[in-house]
Amino acid sequence: MANAMFERGREDWGNADVDWLVDTIKVALVSYSTTDVGIKTITGATNATPIVITATSHGFSNGDLVSIINVGGNLAANGVFKIANQATNTFELTDPLTGSNIAGSGTYTSGGTALNLGPGTAGSHWDDFSAAVVGTPQTLASKTNVSGVLDASDSTFTAVSGSVVNAIIMYRDSGVESTSRVLALMDGHQIVVCAMTAAAAATTVGVERLVAGIPNGTVLAFSNGASATLSALANAGDRTITVSSLAAQITAGSRADSVSTGSNLPVTPNGGDITIQWDNNTLVNIMKL
Asked: In the CATH hierarchy, which fold is given to the domain comprising 39-123?
């Protein structure tokens, strides 16, 4: 499962304001079909450089990181980005590491949700997302910290019904939603980074180590506007991916959003139980943007 930290949560980890063993840490199932302060519906994504996202009255701020999924047509709009030139109903997408503008990869067709990862106030506390919860949040039990690896017992949500579950949010519960810091987002996606420039017609692309597998046939829309289609399964830990002959060059450092094998997200509740099986390196993976 691919993960990202909320920026204020990252700050709290760095300042030792989160005590993994002592604090009450909860996880919640979240549906993107319900909007909240930190979750907004996308209605447009320009095929331009930079991509301009339309999300009515989004309330996000310049410099905020956003996780975007399910944009149709313009696939390069899916991923984790930094906001620039925000207006009431729009914002531009830039690379969170380099600040370069993100290029569109096609005409927007439909769909899309933007989730704010902070550091602005729209993505800092549990009350920014709690309206979208599905089922009842669960408290992590039997937490351990061994050689810097954080772990806990698997979490079971009982008799879950309601909207499609798109993601899991981890937060430190203070007892008050407005002061309960959100820590991590897990949505079954990962960011694939091109490690070295791949020329047009290439059939392999060097990437930074994959944190999870990627299914065969997955289309990766990179931030420089080029796309790659996997022609073979990629596995966790791989540093190259096998693709159909590239139509255009993918430049080093370009990023693409990808679904990950084994995450089982999104999932549609049917009234039964949903169990999250935590890897023993979950929090290590969360540290990677």
From this structure: Elongation Factor Tu (Ef-tu); domain 3 (2.40.30)
Pairing of strands 167-172, 227-229: unpaired
Q: Are 30 and 166 in contact (CB under 8 A)?
A: yes
Q: Which of 28-32, 93-97, 146-150, 233-237 has the lowest mean pLDDT?
A: 146-150
Of 101, 104, 132, 115, whose CA–CA distance to 65 is shortest?
Answer: 115
Phi first, then psi, for residue 286 (nearest 5°) are -60, -30
Q: Residue 54 pairs with which residues in a beta bridge? A: 44, 90
Both structure tokens of 230: 């996997």
Tell me the one-letter amino acid at 101.
N
Per domain, the residue ranges of the chain are 20-32+134-180+264-286, 39-123, 189-262
Q: Bin 203: left if φ > 0, else alpha if -120 < ψ < 50, else beta.
A: alpha
Chain segment 228-267, per-residue pLDDT in tens: 999 999 999 999 999 999 999 999 999 999 988 888 889 9
Please state, in angstroms and as integers, the Cα–Cα distance from residue 240 to each residue in 67, 86, 229, following that order. 24, 36, 13
Rounded Cα distance between 119 and 14, Å, is 14
DSSP, residue by residue, 36-63? BTTEEE--EE-SSSS-EEE-TT----TT
Q: Is the peptide bond between 119 and the residue preceding it cis, with omega within 30 degrees of 0?
A: yes
Terminal alpha carbon distance of the chain: 13
Give this prediction's pTM.
0.90
Q: Kindly report the CA angle at 75 between 224 and 222, in degrees rounded to 5?
A: 25
Distant-in-sequence, close-in-space partners of 108: CB < 8 Å, separation ≥ 6: 44, 45, 46, 47, 71, 72, 73, 74, 77
| 50-85 pLDDT, tens digit each | 999 999 999 999 999 999 999 999 999 999 999 999
